[in-house]
Design brief:
Shape: globular
Strand content: over 45%
Distance between the termini: 6 Å
Helix content: 10-25%
Oligomer: single chain
Number of helices: 3
Structural class: alpha+beta
Number of domains: 1
CATH architecture: Beta Barrel
CATH class: Mainly Beta
Largest sheet: 6 strands, mixed, barrel
Strand order of the largest sheet: 2-3-8-4-7-6
Length: 141
């Protein structure tokens, strides 16, 4: 089993605890994602998915992913490749929410925009270990 180490960024939101961010590559573009161990699955921002996959989307009024953030409309799509460090996940079946308000909140406090939430589906599949001391995410493939 190969270990892939991905750097994390710890940010503080209004002295109310910290959030871990990880860089992801989707559609050959770098974006920041919140690492959310409480989310059952990973989700991407709806506008990002619509911009790149508008012809292959499935829209649903059901909530198909449980995260800290809620929505009324979800989009299902397949992302050709998601990169987390050297880990490349091919044909990733995703759900997309409108994460604009989440992203705006981060930006108001001087942090980068958020385009994704990395949740339990990816973390479990790749046996993720968060190293808080060294601020790294270790994934096993």
């Amino acid at each position: 089993m190969r270990t892939i180490t991905v750097p994390l960024k710890s940010i503080n939101l209004q002295d109310d605890g910290f959030h871990l961010l990880v860089e992801v590559v989707v559609f050959k573009e770098k974006h920041f994602a919140v690492l959310d161990t409480g989310a059952s699955r990973s989700v991407f921002d709806k506008s990002l998915i619509e911009q790149h996959l508008s012809e292959t989307l499935q829209v649903s009024e059901e909530i198909n992913a449980a995260t800290l953030f809620t929505t009324t409309t979800t989009i299902q799509a397949t992302i050709p490749e998601v990169g987390l460090g050297l880990l490349k996940i091919k044909n990733y079946e995703t759900v997309a929410f409108d994460l604009q308000s989440v992203s705006e909140t981060y930006q108001q406090f001087g942090h980068p925009p958020i385009m994704c939430i990395i949740g339990g589906d990816i973390l479990m599949q790749y046996k993720a270990i968060i190293d808080y001391e060294n601020l790294t995410l270790n994934l096993h493939k």
